[in-house]
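Extended Data, panel c. Modelled sequence:
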Amino acid sequence: MSDLIAIAFASEEKAEAVRRKILDMQKEYLIEVNDMVVAVKQPNGHVRLNQMFHPTAAGAAAGSFWGLLVGLLFMMPLLGVAVGAGVGAIGGALTDFGINDRFMKDLAEALPPNGAALFVLVRKMTTDKVLADLKGVGGTVLKTSLDLSKEAALRDALAGEIGAAAG
């Protein structure tokens, strides 16, 4: 079962920096992430999602490949690629996995203009080491599905408090 963590930051740059830090921790096998998205509240009030994975592009790429193969069978590879890319893109656009986009946009509405929130769907993590690496990065916990003790340890670590990584 995965845990959801949503942390608000003052700027998109800060949220992206923490996302890069978490990706580095993933390379070190300290955390395993299913999905990670930065939601930014723009000055006009709209919320923009910076996704790590774009299902529309992935669908178009996969559709192009399969369209090419089918097109070769009928001696029309270019038409197969075009049709396959279109169908794949539509399928990818209709596919939503990981964190629900509507949920992220609704939660990010509470942010101030130019504020950002980092949404992380964590499959598993080495809690003490992850919290130690996140110590003092700042941010405010908006929502989590962690138990109360782990959530408190996360809040302490973000604030840079001593002993935060002990939880």
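The first strand starts at residue 3 and ends at 9. This feature is highlighted in the accompanying rendering.
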